[in-house]
Please model this.
Amino acid sequence: MNTIINIGRQFGSGGGFVAKAIGEKLGIKVYDNELISRAAEESGFSKELFKRSDEKRSMFSMSSFFAPWRYEVSQNYVNDDALFKIQSDVIREIASKDSAIIIGRCSDYILRDMKCLDVFISAPLEYRIKRVADREKMSEDDARALIAKKDRTRETYYNYFTFGNWGMASNYDLCVDSSILGIEGTADLIIEVGKKMGIIR
Model:
């Protein structure tokens, strides 16, 4: 049985770093930006198109991004639903073939019919502001504004495609505050829970 861990996260909570720590401890590949590359390769669209629409809702002209050698242009625009379908197919293909840790992109919803460990990582706002300000070399006010923007776009994206509520505890097997145990400790906790659930062996 493949080990599938889906990681949702607040911006600045260190969710991506936690996912990478889990991957290193278990020897499992982590899929984040690589999903964009895979989706682009599978569909024939440019990676830039997926990057610009990554976990946010929008509409893009196909003239700048489309790879004409793979598909004929039949419309002037490609909408969010089409991009989500392509990316969902890639996520399902990954999960069906091997163990994986998938960051964001509604993977908990996309793989809801599979046995997975669904995790949401959060942290207090002041903790996230400090992390983002240090990482991005910006002021705390700018970090606060960036966090609000990123969380809002992730919430809108998730709620639209899943008909659920981003970050609501009932959507996940485990919700954890990464500021309590830190990156490594949070990764260890998630692994322990996964083992007790029989998802990690």
